[in-house]
C-alpha cells in the first residue's frame, strides 16, 4: 500500500513538542511541581510550520 506523505518534523524539538520542567518545589504529598512547556518554533504541534510568505505592498 502507498504511504501518505507526512509533514516534516520540527528541527528544534524533533517531534517532542511539549515537555515538563521541574520547578524545584515539592507538593504536600512529596511529588515535584512541574510545568508543561511547548516548543517555541512549532508552537506545540511537533511539525514544522510553513515558512512565512513575503508579500509585496505598494509600488
How many DSSP E strands? 2
What is the strand arrangement across the widest sheet? 1-2
Largest sheet descriptor: 2 strands, antiparallel
| N-to-C order of helices and strands | EE
Proportion of strand residues = 25-35%
Shape from CA axes?
elongated
Structural class call reads mainly beta
Nutshell version of this structure?
With 59 residues, the chain is mainly β. The chain has strands at residues 18-26, 32-38.
What does this structure look like?
The chain is mostly beta strands and 59 residues long. It has no helices and 2 strands. The protein has strands at 18-26, 32-38. A two-stranded antiparallel ribbon has the order 1-2. Strand 1 (18-26) and strand 2 form a beta hairpin. The radius of gyration is 19 Å and the shape is elongated. The termini are far apart. The mean pLDDT is 82.
Amino acid at each position: 500500500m502507498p504511504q501518505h506523505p507526512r509533514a516534516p518534523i520540527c528541527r528544534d524539538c524533533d517531534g517532542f513538542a511539549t515537555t515538563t520542567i521541574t520547578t524545584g518545589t515539592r507538593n504536600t504529598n512529596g511529588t515535584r511541581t512541574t510545568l508543561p512547556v511547548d516548543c517555541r518554533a512549532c508552537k506545540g504541534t511537533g511539525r514544522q510550520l510553513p515558512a512565512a510568505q513575503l508579500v509585496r505592498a505598494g509600488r
